[in-house]
Amino acid sequence: MLQGKFVVLGVTGSIAAYKAAELVRLLKKAGAEVHVVMTSSAREFVTPLTFQVLSGNPVVTDMFEKPVRWEVEHVSLADRADLFLIAPATANIIAKMAAGIADDMLTSSVLATRAKVLVVPAMNVNMYLNPITQENLSYLKEKGFYVMEPDEGPLACGYSGKGRFPEPEKILKFIEKLVGVSRDLNNKKILITAGPTREPIDPVRFISNRSSGKMGYALAEAAVERGGEVILISGPTSLQPPPGLYKYIRINTALEMREKVLEYYGWCDVVIKAAAVSDFRPKNYVEHKIKKGDSASMFLELEKNPDILRELGERKQKQFLVGFAAETDEIEENAVEKLRKKNLDLIVVNDVTAEGAGFDVDTNIVKIYYKNGSAEEIPKMTKKELAHVILDRVVNLLKN
User: Fold this and answer.
1) E-strand spans in 195-332?
2) Which of 58, 78, 281, 362 is the most exposed place for a label (fewest CB within 10 A)?
3) Cα–Cα distance between 72 and 60 in angstroms, integer?
C-alpha cells in the first residue's frame, strides 16, 4: 500500500523520538519514500544523522539553512507529500498546529500541505489529559487532521497512564489503512443520515429507538477518507462527528430530519439513509410534564411520520439512493418490497436479532439487495469495514 508513497515525518522533542527511527525503517521497508523534518528540541534526543542514514534523504532541521535544491523547501515537502506524519507529537507542537503557528520548518510545512496529516501524541499522562491538550486535539480532528490515540502504560517520566507512544508496527498498520484507501469518491457529494430520532411526548419524555448511530458515522468517515464531500445529518447520539465533513447537522425529530434531507437533496449525488427514523410520533404534545396520578394506565395516541426514504425515491433524478432496514422476520420479503416501493438502487438489511449485528455494537452482519434483483451476503465485520464494502458497491454501480 505504501509503495512509492511520499511520507514526510515530523519528529518533535519527546523522549519517544528514538522510536521514530524504527518507524522510518518500517516505512522504507514498506516501499515509502521518507523525508524527515526535526524540531530543535527533537535534536536534543536523536541526531539528524540517524534519520538521514535510515531514510536515505537529507534531514531538514532549520528554516533558514541552505537548501539542498533550489526550491522553497517547506512548500516543496508540503506539495509532494502523500502523508504528513508527526510522530511523536508533543503537547507543544499540537498546540502550535491548532493555533496555525508557523515558526519553524515543521509547523510551516504542515500549514502548507494539502496531504493527510496524522498526529501521534506522546507525552506525560497529565499533559495528555489536560483539557487544553484535549481541546486542541478535538479542534485538529474537526479541521480534518487524523489523530492516533496513544497507548496506556508506564511512561518515561515515571508516571503510568495514557500518553505512551504506540509501537512503530502499530503505527505502520494505521498508516497503511489511512493511505491505502482509494480516493474514488473525489468530487462526489454525499448525504448520509445516522442515529435515531426522538419524538417528544412532553418536556421530559419521548419515543425513540435503540439506534446508536455507529453505522451511519462509520459510513460518513469512510466516505470522507475516499474523497467525498459529505454532509452528515444525525439524530441524538454520543458519537463525535468524523473529521473532514463538509457539513454536520444535528436534528431531533423525524420532521426535522425530513426538512434537512430535502434541503440538501438536490445538492447531492449519493444519499445513504442509515438513520433509524421513528415511524410514529405522539399526535398531541403536552406542554407540561404528564403526572402519574392515580391512573393505572395511560392512553397515548400516535400518528404516522412521513416516509422520508419513499419521498426521496419519488423525487429522485440524478441521485443514487441507498436504504437501510433493520428487520426481525421475513427479511428477504421485506427487503425486496422496500427496494421496489421506495425506488432504491440498493438496500442494506440486517437481522437485528442476530448476535453481533444491529444496534449499539461495533460489528454488523448484512445482506445487500440490488435493483437488478441480485443479493449479496456480507459476513460479520466491523461497521467501519462494512462501510467501505458498501461504498465499494456504490462506486462500482456509479461507473455502470
Assistant:
1) 199-202, 205-207, 229-234, 247-250, 270-273, 280-282, 302-304, 320-327
2) 362
3) 12
Query: φ and ψ at 231, to 5 degrees?
Result: -105, 125
Whether 265 contacts 249, CB under 8 Å: no
Radius of gyration of the chain (CA): 25
226 DSSP assignment: T
What amino acid positions are annotated as catalytic residues? 157
* Contacts of residue 66, Cβ cutoff 8 Å, sequence gap at least 6: none
CB 207 within 8 A of CB 281: yes
- Would you state the pLDDT for residue 297? 86
Burial environment of residue 266 by CB neighbours within 10 A (0 to 12, 13 to 18, 19 or more) = exposed
Min mean pLDDT across 107-111, 283-287, 327-331 is at 327-331
Average pLDDT over residues 367-387: 92
Average pLDDT over residues 18-23: 96
pLDDT of residue 70: 41
- Measured in residues, the chain has a length of 400
What are the beta bridge partners of residue 9? 36, 85
Upper half-sphere CA count for residue 184 (Cβ side, 13 Å): 14
Residue 250: CB atoms within 10 Å: 14
In this structure, which amino acid lies at residue 169? E
Q: Which residue is listed with cell 521497508?
A: 29
Q: How confident is the model at residue 192 (pLDDT cuts 50, 70, 90)?
A: very high
Cell of 369: 439487495
Bond into 379 cis (ω within 30)? no
Domains (range + CATH), the chain: 6-180 (3.40.50.1950), 189-283+303-399 (3.40.50.10300)
325 contact partners, CB below 8 Å, separation of at least 6: 334, 335, 338, 347, 348, 349, 350
